[in-house]
Amino acid sequence: MLNRYPLWKYLMVIFVVAISFLYAAPNLFGEDPALQVSGSRGTQVTSEILVKTQQRLEEAGIEIKSAALEDDQLLVRFRDTDDQLKGKELVAQALGDDYITALNLAPATPSWLEALGAGPLKLGLDLRGGVHFLMEVDMDEALNRVQEQRVQDFRTDLREKRLRYSGVLNKDDGTLVVFRDAKVRDESLSYLRTRYPSLVFTERDSGDNFGLFATMSEQRLKEVKEYALQQNITIIRNRVNELGVAEPLVQRQGAERIVVQLPGIQDTARAKEILGATATLEFRLVDEKADVASANAGRVPANSELMRDRNNRPVVLQKRVILTGEHIVDSSASMDEFSRPQVNISLDAPGGSRMADFTKDNVGRSMATVFTEYKSGEEKNDDGTSQLYKQQEVINVATIQSRLGRSFRITGIDSMAEAQNLSLLLRAGALIAPIQIVEERTIGPSLGKQNIENGIMAMLFGMLAVVVFMGVYYRKFGLVANLALVANIVIIIGVMSMVPGATMTLPGIAGIVLTMGMSVDANVLIFERIREELRDGRGVQQAIHVGYDKALGTIADSNITTLITAIILFAIGTGPIKGFAITLIIGILASMFTAIVGTRAIVNLLWGGKRLSKLSI
């Protein structure tokens, strides 16, 4: 019999719409104004802080909906934004500088929906509010690090080849190696050219000194800068993941800058602390031959430098770096056998081999762990940004008892909170070059709320216009199309709420409006084809059957071409473009399902298999 579906097809349509509605439902409950309290520099938020916060708000007469510890953070929900703002000031004063109090919006999803894994749409920066950072990579420091490492490499290579030199030093954006003998210089030039093909070597003689000057080629210079930028982007993404932001945006801008957008973050202190921190470790040998008193008076050996430990005591270290934090692949905080905080370090294969080779030959000597961090100073650059300065501190000095491998531990840390913070930074990765925040913007939740309201109003007006037109022009079949249109929107929102990587932005709302029109367009093709078949004298059931079958090819062709375009946009686009593309992809698939399967199911249910002389179309 024409125009009849088997039972399983009806059940499939009902199941898809029901599941979509279930996962779209959390968006109906909105969000609660909330305060998010987290520890500064690893300070833990305990139940005592929860009780203290509740007491302070209760004393001020501010009513709260709930307060709970979630993921080492305290989340306090309020009934309105006025109480939220008042509560922030009171809580910030009560807890002091050891805690960060940030404005937030917490989903008001019922617990039974959360138990099913349902949650509201993830909103982008333009809808959710949040912070926007524009960061600049210090390329000069990246090049300096490469040059400093080259000095150590040249010294090691020439010593291994027994080629005597007078000195190796950085000079004029390059590395100068000085020899006493021209023959040794020529042998060294031949050897180093083979070993370092990306460097350009030139002879530079002065009196009795025979010099060899090495600079990076243009291609190598470009590679170093590109590597520094890309590696910093990767590390910043890892640090953003540590912050727990739902849908961050991290992308490059130009040759030296990085854009970071963190939706939902209203207090920038914690974000700046983690993102901007350039904490890394260096392992160096202690210069045991140097006289500490003389070094403290300014007479430091040429191949060493003076640093200070956490108690401000001077320590003379060799300039040669055994290993840096770039080789750290994992770190965790724990307690040692004496209940003292420690950080457990795991190295990659090259780092483990280097550490093993070095410690094998230096058993019994003292090795220092140096914590390096770049901070913003009071002096300004020409563009008004703060100058960065390097702060180094010796965490601990330990005697190498035996050959070390890929795993070892660092002790001498003051508190467990500090160990956890250091572990987080090292686990996320050490920045190849320091970065500086040159632009910072905060988008408040009120502006995001206004954008949501405007977007919803635009969608409702567009939907209303389509519903009125379809109802008037196609009568009862128009009402079927309108039901399919509503189901289409429910499916889009439900699927986007389920997909982990889907984020709703203003361009995403535009994508929904666009798919609304495409969904109706498919129904228009089907209904016009049915009208045409009726005018040609076909029976009602035959006209419905042929109308759906003949229009299917045209609908598929038009939607597939649009789908291909949307997939390309998603693959190569970033930010708002990607948000628009993913909404469009889901919308196209949903509109094809509702227009072809959904409306056919309703039409078959209402008119299929019946003896009819005319249709309300």
Walkthrough of the structure:
The chain is an alpha+beta fold. The chain has four domains: 184 residues, Multidrug efflux transporter AcrB transmembrane fold (Up-down Bundle); 76 residues, Alpha-Beta Plaits (2-Layer Sandwich); 79 residues, Gyrase A, domain 2, CATH 3.30.1360; 166 residues, Gyrase A, domain 2, CATH 3.30.1360.200. Helix content is 49%, strand content 26%. A five-stranded antiparallel sheet has the order 13-14-12-17-18. Strands 2-3-1-4 form a four-stranded antiparallel sheet. The chain has a four-stranded antiparallel sheet with strand order 10-11-5-20. A hairpin with a 2-residue loop joins strand 8 and strand 9. Helix 6 crosses helix 8, helix 13 packs across helix 14 and helix 14 packs parallel to helix 16. The longest helix is centred in the last third of the chain and has 54 residues. The mean pLDDT is 82. It is a multi-pass membrane protein. One of its GO terms (molecular function) is protein-transporting ATPase activity. Keywords: Cell membrane, Membrane, Protein transport, Translocation, Transmembrane, Transmembrane helix, Transport.
Layout of SSEs?
Layout: H1 7-24, E1 31-39, H2 47-59, E2 64-70, E3 73-78, H3 81-95, E4 99-107, H4 111-115, H5 125-128, E5 130-137, H6 139-160, E6 167-171, E7 174-179, H7 182-195, E8 199-206, E9 209-216, H8 218-243, E10 249-253, E11 257-263, H9 268-276, E12 280-286, H10 292-296, E13 304-308, E14 314-324, E15 328-335, E16 341-347, H11 349-360, E17 366-380, E18 386-399, E19 407-410, H12 416-428, E20 435-443, H13 445-498, H14 506-535, H15 540-572, H16 576-607
Antiparallel strand pairs: 1-3, 1-4, 2-3, 5-11, 5-20, 6-7, 7-9, 8-9, 10-11, 12-14, 12-17, 13-14, 15-16, 16-19, 17-18
